[in-house]
Design brief:
With 215 residues, the protein is mainly β. Helices cover 7% and strands 35% of the residues. It is built from three helices and 13 strands. A hairpin with a 3-residue loop joins strand 9 and strand 10. The relative contact order is 0.24. One of its GO terms (biological process) is cellulose catabolic process. It catalyses: [(1->4)-beta-D-glucosyl]n+m + reduced acceptor + O2 = 4-dehydro-beta-D-glucosyl-[(1->4)-beta-D-glucosyl]n-1 + [(1->4)-beta-D-glucosyl]m + acceptor + H2O. It is an enzyme of class 1 (oxidoreductase). It is found in: Secreted. Keywords: Carbohydrate metabolism, Cellulose degradation, Disulfide bond, Hydrolase, Polysaccharide degradation, Secreted.
Amino acid sequence: MMVAEIAFAHYIFHSLIAGNTTSVGAVRQPQNYDPVEIENVTSTVMTCNVNPTPAIQTVSVPAGSTLGFNVLSESDNQIFHQGPAAVYLGMAPVPAASWNGSGANCSKIAEWGATFTPLVNFTDFGATQLTTTIPAATPSGEYLARIEQIGLHIPGAPQWYISCAQIKITGGGSGNPSKVSIPGYVNASDPSLTLSIYDPIPTSYTVPGPAVWRG
């Protein structure tokens, strides 16, 4: 694949899916389609991308409802690169609109890994949206919903496609998931980031970051 073709295949997560609502305004919009590169793995840009445009909404959604994001790309509005994806919830200690996502407040609630039949194929590849459900035990309150998809198409040079959206979870429970800081939840030497998906072809894969919490 030529470099121009790779660049043209960049994408962002442009709109939030929250229950029966779809919102562009709740998403802190990335400045462009460019991914976050591995050299920034310890930078605050890992939280919600590079200087995203502030969101203008915080969308209410009941615990147990659908949560996800739609893909917008420079070509065909789908995830173009092989690699894992995950959704995190960061419980905001202040109103979500004024929180930068710092601190150990983030829990992973969904992930998309790989199948091997016999070639490696990531289950999010080609998707136009990624959705999960908010665990029913999630405490009520304001959150940053963060999605990441990691392109592994260039061995040793993973690329993060990241967006955050502001939500208010209602009707929640008393769950207390383990939490991580972003950045800090992965490191540049993680084998799940440094591997080649082409040669040798992997026979197993662990999505980077913490375990998924479902309540």
